[in-house]
Specification:
binds zinc ion, globular, 5-stranded mixed beta sheet
Length: about 625
């Protein structure tokens, strides 16, 4: 994608802003187009019989108005999950019929089916979708449960746009439940959406799971967890308490709660080592190791996904508006859509009282240290290239680095406006000016809103150095403006000397063994699956802390390293070695002046001076 800088006359004086060139017209004159179809009715069936085959049975019925060929396509990706998945791979038994007679069909391309209705006015297409992918963006089934995304199973008529209404009927067995953000329509198990974007933005849980609902500031919130009993008692009360405390703080940024009911959908399974989640306009799906139950990380991920209901599902970069399901939609703006969402997740935690200010600074500190250890990457480049999964460690850098950029912009806006404006004003303004006007935001929208909030201050140099460029962030300048400082401490830590990554099954696999390290001496090999270090399971969410506290005291202790190599499980033996690391710690500066202290307080509380707080 081409990027250019252009002087913007509309802005005060010398502000230069990034402007995206219009995307090249991809569609040639003879782009394939389906004959018009209408009255689309999707029926999906999942019960213990289809579960045994790990499939969801899909039937799509529609009316055909004219003579010609019907072209049906499946999306290649799920918005929010920035990778190509080609869901058509998981379809089998494709069979179109009219009046129960089979119709001729073939493939036009790898995700498009071409059907000849042969004059029929009403057509039904049936297929099985293999729900075998444990991923937020995909479909996965167990004996008593399925997670399924609309992008996987709802074909759309090719070349006819996405503004068509449709109904969905979910069929399951007695005693099994259905949870989705979709609008119920009449009969039980039937839903209706007015356009395809909404249709594929509301994933389903079908089967046996726990569900309960509460009102949060006058809007229903539903908590849905699989398997039954996975999150109950105090752990369930805890996440409810966190949701109740943080959601109003996020809504305060936009002064609007844009849903009738919001569904937090969670799967807990040992098949994943960590946790991940995917946002939608009135729900999100998280897939977590059971170790996340009761862990503060769960609240942080939950807040991140809920904030997305505003930032990215509604307020969205123009180059992802509207979504195009047929191809990648790279954007240089994921540092705002993802990174700054993560900043607001941290803010929601401190503003809602889930963590204290020291906890917030600890989260910020972690991001600063993470960035310091990774290859310097421009935020725009990291955003753009995530689609191709670069292996140099930069693929997800727009999360922590984008989050810190949000923090810096917040401080600079508050500093420039004597704490009368904040980054919240930027989001509120863009939400009204772009999303509410039915469009995505542009670079011009973003930087002029930032500049305006900061009283006309130019952000050209900031953009060139820290967004388009790779310069280290100017903490020595930023932190004092918010009454913060960095203290350094030298720590002695146990170092094993391996680099690891997660494979597609969630296993932690050794990718690098440092020469001369403890791991090399013990015989660890690249490709080994790491199971435990010193009897602490590597999948334990508090592994790092537990490992450091047990082995950080003295050198020479025996360290067992449990790995799986091929079919064998091996226990290797090493000796603990300690290495020195300088740790920086972000903290509130007690000497901060009045203005810096007001800025700091404003960030923690979500308030500005000189106008009523939210
Ligand atoms: Zn996100």
């Amino acid at each position: 994608m081409i990027f250019s800088l252009r002087a913007a006359a509309v802005l005060a004086a010398t502000v230069t802003i990034p402007v995206l060139l219009p995307a090249q017209q991809q569609a040639p004159a003879a782009a394939p187009r389906s004959v018009p179809v209408s009255n689309l009715r999707y029926e999906i069936s999942f019960d213990s019989a289809t579960a045994r085959r790990s499939v969801i049975a899909v039937a799509l019925s529609f009316d055909v108005a004219d003579k010609g060929l019907v072209l049906l396509s499946l999306p290649s990706w799920t918005p929010g999950s920035y990778e190509i998945s080609n869901f058509a791979r998981f379809v089998s038994g494709f069979s179109p019929t009219a009046a129960d007679k089979p119709l001729h069909w073939d493939k036009l391309d790898y995700d498009t089916w071409r059907i000849d209705p042969a004059g029929a006015r009403s057509v039904t297409v049936r297929f099985d979708y293999h729900a075998v992918t444990l991923d937020n963006a995909a479909a996965w089934s167990q004996a008593d449960f399925a997670l399924v995304n609309g992008t996987n199973i709802f074909p759309y008529p090719e070349g006819r746009g996405f503004e068509f209404p449709a109904t969905v009927t979910v069929k399951t067995q007695p005693g099994w439940l259905v949870a989705t953000g979709m609008e119920p329509a009449g009969a039980a198990g039937t839903y209706r959406e007015s356009n395809y974007h909404d249709l594929v933005d509301k994933p389903f849980f079908i089967g046996r799971f726990d569900v309960d609902s509460q009102q949060v500031e006058g809007h229903w919130h539903r908590l849905v967890t699989y398997p039954v009993g996975a999150m109950s008692g105090p752990a369930r009360s805890l996440i409810w308490d966190q949701i109740e405390k943080t959601v109003p703080k996020m809504a305060a940024v936009f002064r609007e709660t844009p849903w009738r009911t919001y569904s937090t959908l969670m799967v807990f399974t040992r098949e994943v080592g960590g946790g991940s989640a995917l946002e939608h306009s009135n729900s999100h799906v998280g897939i977590y190791n059971p170790g996340f139950v009761g862990n503060p990380l769960l609240a942080s991920i939950t807040d991140h996904e809920i904030f997305h209901a505003w930032n990215v599902k509604r307020l969205r970069p123009a180059d992802m508006w509207p979504y195009d399901y047929s191809r990648p939609q790279p954007t240089p703006w994921l540092w705002v859509s993802e990174g700054i969402t993560d900043y607001y997740a941290d803010l929601a935690l401190v503003r809602g009282g889930v963590v204290d200010s020291a906890g917030f600074l600890g989260l910020t500190d972690e991001k600063m240290q993470q960035i310091a250890e990774e290859p310097p990457t421009a935020l725009e480049d990291a955003s753009l290239t995530t689609w191709i999964s670069p292996v140099d460690g930069s693929q997800y850098q727009y999360y922590p680095k984008g989050s810190l950029t949000g923090f810096m912009l917040d401080v600079l806006i508050r500093d420039a406006s004597d704490n009368r404006r904040s980054l919240d004003d930027v989001f509120r303004e863009l939400y009204g000016a772009a999303y509410k006007k039915g469009r995505g935001f542009t670079g011009k929208d973003w930087w002029s809103a930032v500049s305006r909030a900061a009283g006309g201050r130019s952000f050209t140099e900031f953009y060139e150095k820290y967004i388009d460029g790779r310069e280290p962030f100017p903490w020595a300048d930023i932190l004092p403006r918010a009454g913060l400082r960095v203290d350094s401490d030298t720590l002695r830590e146990p170092r094993v000397g391996i680099g690891t990554g997660q494979d597609s099954s969630g296993a932690i696999v050794v990718q690098m063994v440092q020469p001369g390290s403890v791991a090399e001496a013990a015989g660890v090999k690249i490709g080994d699956q790491l199971l435990a270090l010193g009897n602490i399971e590597i999948m334990d969410p508090s592994f790092g802390e537990a490992f450091r506290s047990r082995f950080g005291k003295r050198e020479g202790d025996t360290l067992s390293i449990k790995v799986r190599r091929g079919a064998d499980t091996l226990t290797l033996h090493g000796t603990v070695k300690l290495t020195e690391r300088v740790e920086s710690k972000l903290s509130a500066d007690p000497q901060a002046g009045d203005k810096a202290a007001r800025v700091r307080r404003g960030i923690f509380r979500g308030t500005t001076d000189g106008q009523p707080g939210p």
